[in-house]
C-alpha cells in the first residue's frame, strides 16, 4: 500500500513541477506553444498505446467505447461549467481567477489554462487508478512508463500555469491548484490499489476509455489549437516528435 502511494506520487509530481516552471517567469509564446505541441504528441501516443490498446486487451471494445463516451461527456460538461462560472463571475475558486482587466486575450489565456488543468485532472485520476490496480496485481512499474508519464504531464502543467499567470492569476493560486491536482492523482493510485479486487477487466477497460475520452476532447478543444496559435507552423512537426518519443517509451514499457 505504501509503495503504491509512493509510485503514485512519483508519477503525479511532474504536474506540480510543470506548474512551478510555468510560474517562475514569463515564457515566450512560441516556446510555450512548442511545449504544448510536444505534450500533445505525447498524449496522443498515451491514448493510442497505453489507454486504448490496454483497454481493448483487458475488457474489449464495448467497455472502452462506453468509457470513451462518458469521459468525453464529463470533460465537455465540466469544462462548460467552469467557463460559464468564470464568465458570470460567480466562481472565485481554484479553477478560475477573475482578472482586473477586460482584455479578451487575457480571458482566453485563463480559459485555456483552466481547460488544460481540468484535462490533467480528469485524465490523471483514472490513469493513476489503473496504475494502482496494476501494482496490486504484481505487474510492477517500469522506468520507461514513468518517463512517459513525465513527458505527457509536464507540458500540460507548464502550458496551463503559463496561461494562467499571463491572465493575471496569482502564483499562489496556480500552485495551490496544481498541488491539489497532484495530490488527488497520487491518491488515485492508492485507490486503485485498494479497489483492485473489485476491478474486473471490463471496469479497467472502461476506466482507460474514460481517460482517453477526456483527453481527446481536451486535445481537440484546447491544447492543439493553442499550440498552433503560439508555435505557428512548427506545431505539427513538434507534435510528431512528442508522439515518436512517447510511443517509443510506451513500447519499451
Automatic annotation (TrEMBL):
Assigned keywords, A-Z: Membrane, Transmembrane, Transmembrane helix
Keyword Iron: no
Membrane spanning stretches: 6-24, 31-52, 58-78, 174-196, 202-219, 231-252
Protein name per UniProt: Membrane protein
Species whose genome carries this gene: Kocuria marina
Amino acid at each position: 500500500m505504501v509503495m503504491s502511494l509512493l509510485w503514485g506520487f512519483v508519477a503525479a509530481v511532474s504536474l506540480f513541477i510543470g506548474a512551478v516552471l510555468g510560474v517562475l517567469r514569463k515564457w515566450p509564446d512560441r516556446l510555450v506553444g512548442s511545449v504544448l505541441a510536444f505534450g500533445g504528441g505525447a498524449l496522443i501516443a498515451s491514448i493510442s498505446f497505453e489507454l486504448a490498446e490496454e483497454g481493448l486487451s483487458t475488457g474489449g471494445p464495448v467497455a472502452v467505447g462506453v468509457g470513451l463516451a462518458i469521459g468525453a461527456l464529463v470533460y465537455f460538461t465540466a469544462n462548460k461549467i467552469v467557463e460559464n462560472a468564470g464568465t458570470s463571475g460567480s466562481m472565485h475558486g481554484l479553477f478560475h481567477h477573475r482578472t482586473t482587466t477586460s482584455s479578451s486575450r487575457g480571458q482566453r489565456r485563463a480559459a485555456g489554462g483552466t481547460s488544460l488543468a481540468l484535462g490533467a485532472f480528469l485524465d490523471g485520476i483514472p490513469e493513476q487508478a489503473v496504475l494502482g490496480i496494476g501494482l496490486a496485481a504484481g505487474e510492477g512499474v517500469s522506468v520507461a512508463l514513468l518517463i512517459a508519464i513525465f513527458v505527457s504531464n509536464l507540458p500540460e502543467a507548464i502550458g496551463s500555469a503559463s496561461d494562467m499567470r499571463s491572465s493575471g492569476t496569482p502564483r499562489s493560486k496556480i500552485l495551490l491548484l496544481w498541488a491539489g491536482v497532484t495530490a488527488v492523482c497520487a491518491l488515485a493510485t492508492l485507490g486503485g490499489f485498494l479497489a483492485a479486487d473489485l476491478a474486473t477487466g471490463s471496469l479497467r477497460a472502461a476506466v482507460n476509455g474514460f481517460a482517453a475520452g477526456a483527453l481527446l476532447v481536451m486535445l481537440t478543444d484546447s491544447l492543439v489549437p493553442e499550440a498552433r496559435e503560439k508555435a505557428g507552423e512548427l506545431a505539427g512537426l513538434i507534435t510528431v516528435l512528442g508522439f515518436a518519443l512517447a510511443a517509443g517509451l510506451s513500447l519499451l514499457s
